[in-house]
Amino acid sequence: SLYVSEYFSQSAQKLSFYSWYGNAKLFHFHVPEDTVLLRWLLQASRGKGPECTNMEITVHFRYGAPPVINPLGTRFPVNATVRPSYNISLTLSSAVQNTTFVNVTTPAAGDWFIAAHLPEAAGRIEVKGFSTPCPYMFQADMFVLRLTDMPVLEPGVAVPQTIVSPAKPLHVKVFVPKHAAGMRFELRSCVTGEQKACAVRVVLGSITLPQSFQRIITCTGNVNCSLALESPPWEKWLQIMVESLGTANASVSVEMLATFTACRPGSTSSFINFSSLNQSQTGPRPGSTGAVGSPPLPAGEALRNVSTQRSSCVQNQPVVREDLDVVSVRYRLLNGPSVPVRSISPTLLLLNLNTGMDSGGSLVVSLLLNKTAVSLANGTVVACVSAASPVLSLNATHNCSTAFFQGYPLSVSTSSAEAMLIVLYPQTDDWFLSLQLICPKGQGECNTAEAKVTIFAYLTPCFNDCGPYGQCSLLRRHGYLYAGCSCKAGWGGWSCTDDTKAQSVGAQNLATLLLTLSNLMFLPAIAVAVYRYYLVEASVYTYTMFFSTFYHACDQPGIAVVCIMDYDTLQYCDFLGSVVSIWVTILCMSRVKKILKYVLFLLGTLLIAMSLQLDRRGVWNMMGPCLFALVIMIAAWVYHGVKRRRCYPSSWKRWVFYLLPGITLAFIAISVYAFMETNENYFYTHSIWHVLVASSVAFLLPPRDKHKKPWAWSQKLTCRYQICQNDREELYAVT
What's in the GO CC field (predicted)? Predict the structure, then answer.
């Protein structure tokens, strides 16, 4: 046999502490057909600074779809199916780098996903630029060993094969056709090279994570051994591995045979289905009866349909897939939302999810039993949702499993007429919904019974759009798109349905009131500015108070939210007003000439607006203007002091009762803002920041000029008007 090795790599990603699924870094690989060995190379590293500590990285694996993980131990939504992901932990202690290999023999061909993340986030709000977080990097590489000339078994044809040695197992494959109800694999004439009885192990199927359903049999002696599979995966290559359990360097000769049992499907006429599709999309044509749906069948045709149902193993219902948006699909039944379900054979619906871009959402299947149409009161409609192949014998087995997949069971009855199933991140494949009527006393009394079940099936990015306390975010890794819920107001869980730590409505109202009404502390600063004739500064404080109030009213995570305009606009205006307020206050304290002060006001505001557009949360957007204004203020104070030959400001009362309290309040506010805010205490620590900053402004504003009286600007207007009148009269008299 000829083996070919291939190598696939993706760029490293910086890991994040986990608070929601968007913090997990996703890697997407495609394993080619005929792969017999898969090896992952996982490399984790960290920075070398003192802020880097020992860290544990969790890595999750899954076949067919992104892993469904729950590091925080929260609750999933009701009716959601959750199967734990396969994961390992990498520890970064004294070593700066960790390299780990993970081997998978006979892996399933198709999409494989890896998700990596750090432990739970601490919840501390860090100001960008105040501290340097330690970088933790993770990279995943994939090595595959592929067999280029894998032998193919033809159904019904016995093929002799030879196992050279126990170290070199034999790999063969067989294609499973569509509508295969069962498969039987036989191993015959097993002898060693020395014509002795042999011992071999046969492995059918490929490994899929987190769960693997490989079928293994051990054959010893000359006796033929076989293995039967119910409902093998349709239209896929099934890999079979045979390895010798004998002594080394002993060849083994075997004969292999694979046979299939066909399932004859029954369905309504395709012409009627397409006629129904045309009418439902374009409306009734002129001259038609106006009824939407298929016309009634003649009596002879109806009898032929009944006989077809008895001779077929399943009844197919035509389903149309409608792509609505990214990771958003609706399935529509051509014969109406209600389908007939009988006990003779299962009713089958195909839900196509094999485009490669459907595994990043949630598959929702809802069943509603029409109680008025049930002709048997004791009957129960049993359903099963499975991937790759349908369950064809619901009346015999209730475990809802196929050859290599454990399905998801559902049931409806007259006592419980509704059922719902949510499959989180369904794997890329053809999915099937099988329904059958089951009677408690046996199938004899169900032969003439029929139940009507209304079926709604759709693929959505986030179930229930993450509810009122969550936001559905579309995430991207290269060209692959998937969705996740970001929860707020203390809610958690996959779809933000876990209220274990949720804030009450009263707590949400209190948080909104604190964050908004604390901005009213700017009113004293505005009054002082107006009283001292600082009208431009008072206008800036009013602007800041207004937009900070309504930004925090719109920024609330709960239901107490009021947005007077776009959220991004409110946030930008709030940040701009905050920085400009600090800028104009420090420049006002410098007591430079008015013309220079107003030029600096305008020029600084334009530069601050530009820097905020580049990086709104950067610490230097606030610290840069503050430091530059402080340099101007200190230079101006030194100039005034040298000119007057004494300390400036010269009044000790100004220092003790105004400057020192104002500077103290400002430093406390900066400390609270930079080092004390967390997600839990944000609403009151940030409210304290509002109060302290606004109070410091009222203390720091300089007194008015001694030659000016309060509100003197109104008298000046009157005076100027009278002078103008006198001049005009004098000129008039001269002419």
Answer: plasma membrane
